[in-house]
Amino acid sequence: MNKYIIYILFFSIFLFSSCVPTKDLIYLQENKEGTKETINEVVSKPYRLQVNDVISIDIKALDLKLVEIFNGGTGETSKSAEALYFSGYTVDDHGNIRMPILGEINVLGYTLDEVRKELETKLLADYFKKEAEIFVNVKLGGFRYTINGEVGNPGTNVLYQEKVNILEAIANSGDITVVGDRKDIKVIRQFPQGIETLSIDLTSESALKSPCFYLQPNDYVYVKPLKQKTWGTGKTGIESLGTIITILSLATTTFLLLKN
Hints:
single chain, alpha+beta, 5-stranded mixed beta sheet, 10 strands
């Protein structure tokens, strides 16, 4: 009988050790020494346009009628993702956008500010004088990212803001589940020249200095599951205790049936 008690004791220890510890659930924890780490501001590189990006271009002047044709005759339009799909400018497979009068303009690998300056220079050189007070505004058709894995609401999201950090993206997707690995989140980032995979530990405050703390448009974020999910022993002590009771009840019933 003592042998069975030892087996049950070891099995109980295993079950409770398989619970997800609190330290694996808390974001941005201080270092173990307890000293405050100096966090410098992360200087994120400006986003460079890629194929299939959709951008919004709005051209203004003192006389709005003079620039109406360059805006496709639409003037101010709704900037929702659905509206921009039809009225915005999509970067084609050759890295070009096609605008009224101006024709095809290559923007692949350009920042939004570089596109703005290019358009202003072209308009002033070929169509307007400086006195026309040309004003060009170039924006992305929303900040798009995709998140998958152990989050509440996986999928593709579009946020209408200039900068998005990974904590905002996760919060917008229903947060990471209890069995999601916060210590090794993968960020797959696209560049005009290729793809790079980055990793970030959100349980450490050093994550604030990570190059992928601030996301870039079209980033793919993957939150992998912890081993506790595949073990199926319970995420908390209460769940593990329930598992133990269920197994003991099953073992007792089986023992009594075999004995009879």
